[in-house]
Amino acid sequence: MIKELPLIMVRGVCYSYPNGTEALKNINLNIFRGELVGIMGKNGAGKTSLIRTLNGLIRPTYGNLYIDNENIKSKSIATLSKKVGIIFQNPLHQLFANSVEEEIKFSLKSFDLRKDEIQSKTNKILHKFDLEKYRNRSPLNLSGGESKKLAVASIICRDPEILVFDEPTLGQDAKEIEFFINLIQNERKNGKTIIIITHNIEFSYEYLPRTILMADGQIIADGPTKKVLKNEFLINHTSLILPQIHLFNLLLQESGFHKEEIMSINEMTNYLRNLIKHKALKL
User: Could you report the per-residue pLDDT of 190-200, keeping only the tens digit for each?
Assistant: First the structure.
């Protein structure tokens, strides 16, 4: 049986900024096709530098990166962007067209498509992201949540094989986060490989199967999220906090109330609601 090769292979990658600051130190990493992976760590850990190497925005000082078993060293940013779509933390860093519709059209212009095909794809993506009513509005006049949604739409419309999100839940309300969760679940069903940089510990614990922890330009842990994020030493080292669901489970176990592990915020809410009802009936 032939073993599947990783879709992304990072081998001995180092990167130093022009001022000599080491952002990445000997990074070795495999990510397989269809995986959903989180990257976590405090600011300055090297997370954003790492993802920027994937589409050529920065080039490693040493080491090599392979996508689909091809060394991307000589690949242009334009070529790599068709395969790797990055949605940055600040959507204004990638939005510059005069209208929402033109933003989507511009993103599609590098493909060999007829005008009617571009218009059809634009209409479909505007509908998918509920942006039709803003079709003629300037991206600069959108709310924070709407502009982030447009930034995502401008990448999704290109149908890249790899999607990379930098802090997608930051500043988003509950409805916007729910939209994003549904989006990544659907894109994963379509076979996409998804990488998410986030500080949202509860989101990671509940939705991301695998987590990579970074500190000082290095990977210090890589494994199942529910194992990695329960490790107090690693959490302290990366200036994160233990997931509330995990702490809640520990408290329940110590109190003798519950033995089965609660896995989500909804489960925790329902458990507390039922517990309160049960106690109230006894009064």
Answer: 999 999 999 99
